[in-house]
């Protein structure tokens, strides 16, 4: 059981470490907090909450994966390599694509309630 609980400890350490060092992750957490407050103010339906929680969770997961890819590449080589750049850029692109999707989802959910 000790190793089971240690795995949670290490996972939380990873979140804290990424949060301290990654500006974009901080931004995602702030936006997530704003969205949660707005969701409470607008009294979202159960399905809307499920969609928002999924989009927030996936966005944070993608940012953590992007960070781990960047760290791994930086660990492997300090030299510039076109494939390393592509790997970092593609991981960042995945975050950007999903961030755009989350904005669209947010507009679909919140715009009718604002109007």
Automatic annotation (TrEMBL):
Record's keyword terms, sorted: ATP-binding, Cell membrane, Kinase, Lipid biosynthesis, Lipid metabolism, Membrane, Nucleotide-binding, Phospholipid biosynthesis, Phospholipid metabolism, Transferase, Transmembrane, Transmembrane helix
Membrane topology: Multi-pass membrane protein
InterPro entries the record matches: DAGK, DAGK_sf, UDPK
Subcellular location(s) per record: Cell membrane
Transmembrane segments: 27-44, 50-69, 90-111
Gene3D superfamilies assigned to the protein according to its UniProt record, in alphabetical order: 1.10.287.3610
GO molecular function, one term: kinase activity
Pfam families noted in UniProt: DAGK_prokar
Family of the protein in this entry: Belongs to the bacterial diacylglycerol kinase family.
Protein name: Diacylglycerol kinase family protein
Organism: Pallidibacillus pasinlerensis
Lineage: Bacteria, Bacillati, Bacillota, Bacilli, Bacillales
